[in-house]
DNA sequence: TCAAAAGTCAAACACTTGTTCATGAAAGCT
DNA sequence: AGCTTTCATGAACAAGTGTTTGACTTTTGA
């Protein structure tokens, strides 16, 4: 019944009970998305009396760490929170953008869980567009300063203007290239002299979207 | 007691009850951060019997719109569902990172509000480090693929290893350079042949932190 | 060393709240 | 019109859960 946050129970003996209570509440809410009951906290904090837990919850409320509404069941909410580092985030200001991993053969790339994780991005940089992230592998776009390991932010659309850097699906493989034309014929241009332009034929190629941003977390 | 989500109660008469229930649950959770009780939903949806609400909740669970755990109080959670675009964000997963604008003359750069805005970044890419963002101006680091207009993510620290790309304060101006040594003497190296290395003397120079990431939102 | 304060517990109580049941009205269908 | 199905209601029950009380133990401080 209350085993979801399986495990540990009492923590390091040195930590004070009130800390254990707070930590456990935090953990529980993160895991279960609902508040724990007093008795859940008992089990999770090592305290054996609901009374003790109750006392600490009230104290944590006074300290401003949580909001504890008298009488209500499972009504603890975290008062965000310590410092300016972790801030209360108005969730409308943040968007969870999926990182598309390997593109499987089937058509609906975005449909279910082809992605492994979400990265949160400020809405201010995305607006109301539908976006996703793609991890770059290879150096074919190095002259456009897009490196191996970068995450590119792609705004979904199925057309492209000449000169746009886009994400496209070629033979069921996702790549990043610059879209352009050569003598009126559409091509996908790598930005690396070692690679050759790829003819863009609508049979094997599908435009996923336009690259509107880039995240890099491996600096060297 | 249950007036927090003050107001409207029953909605457009045309809407079916099950929709009103779902909408109200959604609304309530958004407003109060905890699940409503069956009786709360009664009041909010216009239904007068807990039994009716209970039926619909169970149905919504079968439909996969919510998760309704039998017996638990205030334990409804939304099974997200439709958009995937706007998600309830566990705020501990997101950090607000300040964008440092102009560096004013005074010492404590980070102290108060020298910054203009925050950008939200996933905690998964930051960890527990203290970070800030700096907008790059100029092309002095172009060979390191850091462009004019990029935002660099800086982890605060006051030392640097040879080869690190760092943010430093030179004569009260913030710059990005690679830290290194020439004949044992520390220098700040631009990554652009048009610029010359800058001798790093501890009088005028202060290390702000190490560059650990990069965001670019102007692709061309 | 002694008394006050703080920490912890068990048990009981009372209220919130999920769940069920029987009933009745409204709507669909033959 | 009759029958079935759906929708809704109110009442009652049972369980989960917040809260209180009093006692016991440990720590703190003079």
Task: Describe the 3D structure.
The structure is a homodimer of 220-residue chains. Chain A has 220 residues and is an alpha+beta fold. Chain A folds into two domains: 3-86, Winged helix-like DNA-binding domain superfamily/Winged helix DNA-binding domain (Arc Repressor Mutant, subunit A, Orthogonal Bundle); 94-215, Umud Fragment, subunit A (Ribbon), CATH 2.10.109. Helix content of chain A is 19%, strand content 30%. Chain A has helices spanning 17-32, 38-45, 50-63, 123-126, and strands at residues 66-67, 77-78, 94-100, 115-122, 131-135, 151-156, 165-170, 173-182, 185-189, 198-199, 205-216. In chain A, the strands form two sheets. In chain A, strands 4-3-5-6-11-7-8-9-10 form a nine-stranded mixed beta sheet. A two-stranded antiparallel ribbon of chain A has the order 1-2. In chain A, a hairpin with a 2-residue loop joins strand 8 and strand 9 (185-189). In chain A, helix 1 (17-32) crosses helix 2 (38-45), helix 1 (17-32) packs across helix 3 (50-63) and helix 2 crosses helix 3. The two termini of chain A are 49 Å apart. At the A-B interface, helix 1, strand 3, strand 4 and strand 11 of A face strand 3, strand 4 and strand 11 of B. Strand 11 of chain A pairs antiparallel with strand 11 of chain B, so a sheet runs across the interface. Chain B binds a DNA duplex (30 and 30 nucleotides) through residues 17, 37-39, 47-52, 54-55, 57, 70-75.
């Amino acid at each position: 019944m209350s085993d979801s946050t399986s495990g540990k129970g009492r923590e390091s003996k040195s930590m004070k009970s009130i800390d254990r209570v707070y930590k456990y509440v935090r953990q529980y809410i993160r895991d279960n998305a609902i508040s724990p009951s007093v008795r859940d906290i008992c089990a999770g904090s090592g305290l054996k009396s609901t009374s003790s837990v109750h006392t600490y919850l009230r104290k944590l409320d006074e300290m401003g760490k949580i909001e504890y509404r008298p009488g209500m069941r499972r009504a603890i909410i975290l008062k965000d929170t310590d410092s300016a580092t972790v801030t209360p985030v108005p969730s409308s200001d943040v968007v969870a953008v999926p990182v598309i991993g390997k593109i499987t053969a089937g058509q609906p790339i975005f449909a279910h869980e082809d992605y492994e994780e979400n990265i949160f991005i400020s809405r201010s940089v995305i607006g109301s567009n539908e976006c996703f992230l793609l991890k770059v592998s290879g150096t074919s776009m190095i002259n456009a300063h897009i490196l191996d390991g970068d995450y590119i932010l792609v705004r979904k659309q199925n057309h492209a203007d000449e000169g746009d850097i886009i994400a496209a699906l070629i033979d069921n493989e996702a790549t990043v290239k610059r879209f352009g034309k050569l003598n009126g014929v559409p091509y996908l241009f790598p930005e690396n002299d070692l690679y050759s332009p790829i003819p863009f034929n609508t049979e094997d190629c599908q435009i996923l979207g336009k690259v509107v941003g880039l995240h890099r977390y491996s600096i060297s």
